[in-house]
């Protein structure tokens, strides 16, 4: 019942922006043509279809805006005019009043902006679905960006999530694949990450962790530049970080004019993704062009810049090993190994025939190898894999939903930068090197080093523990005797039960004979 008003609002906004006309015009079916003719008897839309869709998503709130952000990177799946409009959702959502933003900063940090900062720009430089950003200067001269959470977000998101739970429950009950897809668990994952995004202290901690993973003095310093967190200027609804200077990764012409090697940039993006996923098990999970910039400063020209750390993903060691082996098996075209991994992990029923699953996966993936990215749609590959998984009852893993979304983002970025990028050949050497480091001598040495501190505490106790174990009296004879007595008692009980059952049967037979006479 709580979701009903929200559902009505969604329907009213869809009608207001004539999304019915947009949907019907994209369906090539006689009934759709007739319905479109009926719909157009009313007022014809005056705005372009892309603008209508963007404004509708903005009106519906942050969850729908994020959906539009993901769609904007998939120009292979949606028309260019719609993609161009949806791209505006990445950092040009209508801002809330600047006076209100300043008041939120002052209330959170406990002082007027004039006292907190040497300069605070009242007009936001960027505005997204959850928050907006204002530039400022600290009293020590450092330039910073202040992110302020939009007021009233929690209530809006809770209403949308309530509606999504209702829809997920209906899908689970009514759809043939409902239980296998685990829609309620997927919504639960989405719920968790959205509420995490509403806590800017958590986002600041995510930023700090990612910066440490790509430390300026580490081996990966040239891959990704992450801003420094100004902890003294952070609160649950205010996040202050180092100001970054760069160009959105989607503005390829500007990057090329500065002398940035675009094909190298595309390959580096793939390497950054796999480094986060497999080396760290901690990855930026909102990698649309509004959050990924490229430095235009002479000293760091061409280096990636990451922004907006509200949504991050984490993977367990099991998930990392499983995914790495699957990726390598795909790249090596070892489809039997892919099938075996799915069966061993329990993602498909144990009764599944390995050779049948192998043949199905081969039919999906084989046509896409040795093709440039321009000729591959990962979305279409995933769709075909989804259709195959339905046949074999593959269970959807909710903890990997964010990874799948991020992989689609990365593909969208790679397609914009270098359509000729070979995703398979770029990723395969990295994964092979990663597996070698984990299972080879280097990996063993690293694990020994990690465990050495704990072992140093255990080793001195080993002689005492071994002596105590060897000094214990031998109780095996007593245990064996007790087991024998238990077995004899059980056998005696069974004999008694059989005898009582026989007596009861005889008594019942006599009673029935007496009644019949």
From TrEMBL:
Cellular compartments per GO CC: plasma membrane
Pfam families: ABC1 (PF03109)
GO molecular function: ATP binding; protein kinase activity
Residues that hold ATP according to the record: 125-133, 147
Keywords: ATP-binding, Cell inner membrane, Cell membrane, Kinase, Membrane, Nucleotide-binding, Transferase, Transmembrane, Transmembrane helix, Ubiquinone, Ubiquinone biosynthesis
InterPro entries: ABC1_dom (IPR004147), Kinase-like_dom_sf (IPR011009), UbiB (IPR010232), UbiB_bact (IPR045308), UbiB_kinase (IPR050154)
Membrane topology (UniProt): Single-pass membrane protein
Residues that span the membrane, as ranges: 496-516
Residue span(s) of domain ABC1 atypical kinase-like: 89-341
A GO biological process held by the record: ubiquinone biosynthetic process
Active-site residue numbers: 286 (proton acceptor)
UniProt-listed SUPFAM superfamilies: Protein kinase-like (PK-like) (SSF56112)
EC code: 2.7.-.-
Pathway connected to this protein: Cofactor biosynthesis; ubiquinone biosynthesis [regulation]
Family according to the record: Belongs to the ABC1 family. UbiB subfamily.
Functional description taken from the UniProt entry: Is probably a protein kinase regulator of UbiI activity which is involved in aerobic coenzyme Q (ubiquinone) biosynthesis.
Name this protein carries in UniProt: Probable protein kinase UbiB
Species of the source: Zwartia hollandica
Gene from which the chain derives: ubiB
């Amino acid at each position: 019942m709580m979701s009903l008003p929200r559902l009505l609002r969604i329907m009213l906004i869809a009608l207001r922006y004539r999304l019915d006309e947009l949907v019907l015009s994209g369906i090539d079916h006689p009934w759709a043509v007739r319905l479109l003719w009926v719909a157009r008897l009313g007022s014809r839309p005056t705005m372009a279809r892309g603008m209508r869709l963007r404004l509708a998503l903005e009106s519906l709130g942050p969850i729908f805006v994020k959906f539009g952000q993901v769609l904007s990177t998939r120009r292979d799946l949606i028309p260019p005019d719609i993609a161009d409009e949806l791209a505006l959702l990445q950092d040009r959502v209508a801002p809330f009043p600047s006076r209100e933003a300043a008041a939120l900063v002052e209330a959170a940090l406990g002082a007027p902006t004039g006292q907190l900062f040497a300069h605070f720009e009242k007009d936001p430089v960027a505005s997204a679905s959850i928050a907006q950003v204002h530039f400022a200067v600290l009293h020590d001269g450092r330039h910073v960006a202040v992110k302020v959470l939009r007021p009233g977000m929690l209530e809006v998101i809770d209403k949308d999530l309530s509606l999504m739970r209702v829809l997920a429950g209906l899908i689970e009950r009514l759809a043939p694949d409902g239980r296998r897809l685990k829609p309620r668990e997927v919504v639960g994952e989405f719920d968790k990450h959205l509420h995490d995004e509403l806590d800017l202290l958590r986002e600041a901690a995510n930023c700090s962790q990612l910066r440490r993973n790509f430390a300026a003095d580490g081996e990966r310093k040239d891959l990704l530049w992450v801003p420094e967190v100004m902890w003294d200027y952070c609160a649950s609804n205010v996040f202050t970080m180092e100001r970054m200077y760069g160009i959105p990764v989607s503005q390829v012409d500007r990057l090329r004019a500065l002398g940035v090697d675009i094909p190298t940039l595309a390959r580096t993006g793939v390497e950054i993704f796999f480094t986060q996923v497999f080396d760290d098990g901690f990855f930026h999970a909102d990698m649309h062009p509004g959050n990924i910039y490229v430095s235009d400063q002479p000293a760091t020209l061409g280096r990636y810049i990451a922004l907006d750390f509200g949504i991050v993903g984490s993977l367990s060691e099991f998930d990392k090993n499983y995914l790495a082996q699957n990726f390598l098996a795909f790249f090596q075209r070892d489809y039997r190994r892919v099938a075996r991994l799915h069966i061993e992990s329990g993602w498909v029923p144990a009764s599944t025939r390995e050779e049948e699953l192998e043949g199905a996966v081969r039919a999906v993936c084989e046509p896409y190898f040795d093709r440039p990215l321009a000729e591959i749609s990962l979305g279409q590959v995933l769709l075909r894999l989804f259709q195959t998984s339905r046949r074999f009852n593959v269970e959807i893993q909710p903890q990997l939903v964010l990874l799948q979304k991020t992989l689609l983002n990365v593909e969208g970025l790679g397609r914009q930068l270098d359509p000729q990028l070979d995703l398979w050949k770029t990723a395969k050497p990295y994964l092979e090197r990663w597996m070698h480091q984990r299972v080879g001598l280097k990996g063993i040495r690293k694990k020994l080093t990690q465990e050495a501190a704990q072992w140093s505490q255990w080793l001195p106790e080993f002689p005492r523990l071994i002596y105590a174990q060897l000094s214990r009296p031998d109780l095996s004879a007593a245990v064996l005797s007790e087991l024998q007595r238990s077995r004899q008692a059980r056998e005696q009980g069974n004999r008694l039960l059989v005898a009582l059952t026989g007596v009861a049967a005889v008594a019942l037979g006599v009673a029935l004979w007496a009644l019949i006479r």
